[in-house]
Amino acid sequence: MDIKQTPVTSFHGREGRKPIIIVNHISAGSMGSMYNTFKNPANRASSHFGISRKGEIVQYVPIQQAAWTQGKIQSSATRPIAPIIRQHMGNPNLYAVSIEHEGYAGNGIQGDLTEEQFWASCWLHKYIQSEVERLYNHRIELNSHHVIGHYQIDAVGKPVCPGLLFPWANLYSELIYASGMTLVEYGEQISYKTSIGANKVTAFAFAARIADLKAKLTHTVYGPEARRKIMLLLPIMEELSFSAYFNEETAENIAARIDQVYNNANTERWEKEGVRKLLVGANYAKQLGLL
Asked: Using one digit for the tens of pLDDT, what is the confidence trace for 140-175?
């Protein structure tokens, strides 16, 4: 992945400290508004990195410098939640590397990252770990002790940052995987995971699962359970353009629409859109435990 360099002057030295944590934030604004805020030192705000909704990574402040992101711990009223912050206290900016994730009203303000943004964030965490190890001969472990949210530093002023829907479980799970690899190895893995080939594997597995449930609809034992499971998909069927093809919300029609989308995904013209729609179903099915 590439990092676009957009330097600002809103920072100061680390005062002899080394980075030991990575702090995640939500921007509450677009990438443009974020930069406009950071470039004016009078705002006393900046971050080392920003990640757009499209998955673009921007670096504003060198890792060797302290960005103005976390804020000082003012009093016991803002006593941090994170054990590592309680241990070190002082000014967390001096020992943190910060990541802002683009999110604003109606577009990720709750921390619901796009797929592109999520994978860019995973890679960036690994990149930061690698760079800190190169620059300081210190390894930031990619776990919940060293990778935290702003709310864990200031539970009063920033009680939910980086958002109630921020994918912590998925992030930590992925970072465990990344920890055992070099940056190049992990980058190659992400390249595959975000490719159409990898997405097709997941998408087609979902289509096959629904086809299997459809075949069981008339089974004397499994029929009712197969019907119940297919009907669980109803909330996301409009994202698969269900009503454009069917009037009745039945298990048979849901399965038939998914089969149509699967067939589209096997054509050159509609492959990307078909795979995209099947992935919507696959992700929802995973949440339900169907896949």
From this structure: 999 999 999 999 998 888 889 999 999 999 999 999
Q: Which fold has domain 3-193?
A: Lysozyme-like (3.40.80)
User: β-strand 57-59 against 49-51: which pairing, if any?
Assistant: antiparallel
Q: Residue 26: which H helix or E strand, with range?
A: strand 21-26
- Residues in contact with 245: Cβ distance below 8 Å, sequence separation at least 6, in sequence order: 257, 260
* Angle at the Cα of 214 from the Cα atoms of 210 and 215, rounded to 5 degrees: 120
Q: How many CA atoms lie within 13 A of 8 on its CB side?
A: 27
For 71-83, the pLDDT digits (tens) are 777 665 567 889 9
Burial category of 40 from C-beta neighbours within 10 Å (exposed 0-12, middle 13-18, buried 19 and up): middle
pTM: 0.77
Which ranges in the chain are annotated with CATH 3.40.80.10? Answer: 3-193
**Strand-strand pairing, 21-26 and 96-101:** parallel
Chain mean position to CA 29: 17
Read off the amino acid at residue 250.
T
What is the crossing angle of helices 251-265 and 196-215, to 10°?
A: 150
Judged by phi (left if over 0) then psi (alpha if -120 to 50, else beta), residue 71 lies in: left
pLDDT, the chain, mean: 94
CA distance 273 to 264: 8
The pair of three-digit structure tokens given for residue 221, joined into one six-digit string: 């034992």
Q: ∠ CA 63-172-19 to the nearest 5 degrees?
A: 20
In terms of DSSP H, where are the helices of 183-222? 183-193, 196-215
Cis bond upstream, residue 83 (ω within 30): no
Q: Which of 58, 159, 158, 66 is nearest to 117 (CA)?
A: 58
